[in-house]
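Go through this chain.

——
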Amino acid sequence: MAINYTVNAEVIDIRTDSPTSGDIFLVDTNVWYWITYPPASASAAAYQSTHYPAYIASAVSNSSKLHYCGLTLAELASLIERSELRLSAYDPSKLKEYRHNYPAERRKVVREVETAWRQVTTDYAGQLDLVIEAATSGAALNRFQTQLLDGYDLFLLETMQQQSVTQIITDDSDYVTVPGIQVFTANQNVIKAAASQGKLLSR
């Protein structure tokens, strides 16, 4: 069944956009995953492993500001661990056994996560701090009622809200439900929906 997107954000096609020195982006975890963890390209669509790295490289060259938040590490570590399990000869349904019973494999997972995180934090981006307190959790829960996001994304958006950042580089179509932000993407389904609803922005 086709997904019926209600596009509330402004959408920018990164295949035709040039980032500028005035841009301040939060970069979604999947984009960091494709850029910093080489095996990710095996499970990525061709456009994901080409357009996002190219856009990030252009952003760096043009002195755009790139950011991550602390929750990015949690999500990135989970993605890498599950990918390493899939690449191994172990039963992919037995993550706990893989984590606890195979120390050599666990050390490899840790090295991969450390390497990826070092690239994010040293080569590309700065951290946006998120204070998770009762008010933040309440705001995230309120957002959950009207914007079609998962738990990680709710708090990434609260990070953007707290730090007055309105631009996000992501392949995740859920972000288009959020008003007041700009979604920089190469996701064709999102781009087509945005164009049909008058929300595709050319800069």
Summary: The beta strands are 10-13, 24-27, 65-69, 126-128, 167-169, 182-185. The chain has a mean pLDDT of 93. The longest helix spans residues 103-124.
